[in-house]
Give the backbone structure.
Amino acid sequence: MTLSSSRESQLGLRWADIRPRSLPFAASDLDLRRSLDCGQTFRWRAVDDVWFGVIGDQAFRIERIDPRRIEYRAWPSRDVDGVLWEFFRLDVDLGELRRLDDPALTPAMDALPGLRVLGQGAVETLLTFACSPANNITRITRSIDALSQEHGQSIGSIDCVAYAAFPTTETLAEIDDANARGRANLGFRARTLRSAAAHVRDGGPRWVDALQNAPLSIAREILTAIPGIGPKIADCVCLFGLGHDDAVPIDTHVFAIGRDTLGFPSTDSLTPRGYQRMAQAYRNRFGPWAGWAQQYFYHARRLDRRLPRPSEVRTRHARTA
C-alpha cells in the first residue's frame, strides 16, 4: 500500500507502507555495502544490512533479500523504474573486468565481489566532492546531510527520519559562512563549495552533464578551471558522475598502490606531474576500465585487504604468458 502525500503528512509515512520492488541481481554482481561505502557517495547510511539514502528527489530503502535478489522501496514512488539500474550502473558486466585477467586486479575483485562504480548526478557529485578535501567519509556524509536538511527540498519523513534532496546550485552559491560552518561543519571547504556552485549556476542548465560526451581530457580541463577544483576532484566527477570509466582519481593511497603493488615506474612524488604520470600508467594497463580498477584497489587498501606485491604480480604474468 502507498499512502497519499496528505495522509503521510497527517500520520507519518512508514517504509512498511510502501510497495516493495525487486532487482534480480546476484550478490556477486552487486554488493550494497561495498558499492555504497567505498568513498563514491555520501548520501547513504546503513542500519544492519538495510541501506537508506537519497537519489535526486527520491528516498530509498534497499536490502538484499537472498543471494540473487535485492528488494527496494522508494518515496515518492513515481518513476522508479530504471533509477536504481542507472545509479548502480547495472548495464555494466563485471565479467568485462575479469576478462582482463590481470594478476593484480583479479585478487582485488575476488576480495570485493559485487563492488560497482556508481552513476550519480554530475552536478551533485561535483558539489559533494567539493566538500571532501582533507576530510573523511563519515564527516563528509554528516556535512552533506546537514546541508540537505537545512537547504534542500524536503522529500518527507519516513519512520521518523527526515529525507531531503541535495540543495540547488542557486542556494549553495549564496550560502553564507555561518550556515556552511555551522551544522554542516565545512570549515575552509565552504569557499570551494560556494565557488563551484556559482560557477555551475552561471554556466547555465546541464552544462556539467554535457561533459559526459566530451573526451576525458577536455572534461578534466573544464572542471579544473573551476576555482578550488583540482585534478583529483575533477577525476572523481568524471568517474562517478559522468561515466568516464578511464578517469583515475589519484590520492596518496592510489599512488602508493600503483608504485608498490602494480610496480609502475615512478620517480615522482604526488606532484601535478606525478599525478598525471600515475593516472596514465593506470590507463595504459587497464584501458577503458582504469577507473573501475582504481576503485577496487582503493577500497581493498582502505579495508586492509592484502594486495600482491610487484614480484608476485610479475610471477603470475610469467605463468600466464
Q: What stands out?
A: The chain has a mean pLDDT of 89. The longest helix spans residues 137-151.
